[in-house]
Design goal:
alpha+beta; seven-stranded antiparallel sheet; 23% strand
Length: 186
């Protein structure tokens, strides 16, 4: 029973990856995005590799900022994904591990980024729903990826103008402001 389930999970994830490569990555490439390897300093985290099996996507703007897109897969190798996007500043980003160039930044590191959801009413991952004991075919995964591809104009609008469509939400991570110490205060 467990072996059958793990085989099913692996097959479903493979169908999903293939559908994303065929449909979603092709459309993003037409919009000027190129595939970039996972940026790292030191060994790569296994969970990072599993959550971003297709790498990252980036597109450099004329003014030097970089549009970033990540197709993040669900944990536990579930056949579900979401699309995260953001704009890396042209000066890059300073983290605890040092300065990162804009093309090497991950979307989740940004103070503000966007997440595309499979539903306009709730923050859902793109996944195939089924009744128990109902079989799922490769065409079901093609359908969910084509649905996500239909929302790409909303992603473009969010990246270019910061405006949200019905399937996009903004994530803002407030960063504490650290006041500089002056000679008078101390």
């Amino acid at each position: 029973m467990q072996k059958e389930k793990s085989e099913y999970v692996r097959q479903a994830r493979n169908w999903l990856i293939q559908a994303i490569r065929t449909h979603l990555l092709a459309l993003l490439a037409q919009q000027g995005f190129e595939t970039a390897p996972l940026a790292h300093r030191g060994p790569l985290d296994r969970e990072l590799v599993l959550s971003l099996p297709l790498g990252r996507l980036r597109r450099t703007r004329k003014e030097g900022a970089v549009d970033l897109v990540e197709i993040q897969f669900a944990k536990h190798r579930r056949a579900a994904f979401r699309v995260m996007a953001g704009v890396a500043p042209k000066e890059g980003l300073m983290t605890l591990t040092g300065h990162w160039a804009p093309e090497d930044i991950y979307v989740g590191w940004l103070n503000e980024y966007f997440v595309m959801s499979g539903s306009r009413w709730r923050q859902a991952w793109f996944s195939v729903w089924r009744w128990p004991h109902q079989s799922i075919a490769q065409r079901d995964y093609e359908g969910i990826v084509l649905k996500a591809a239909g929302f790409l104009p909303e992603l473009e609008l969010a990246l270019r103008e910061g405006k949200l469509g019905p399937h996009m939400r903004r994530v803002v991570i407030p960063r504490p402001v650290i006041a500089e110490r002056t000679a008078d205060s101390g």
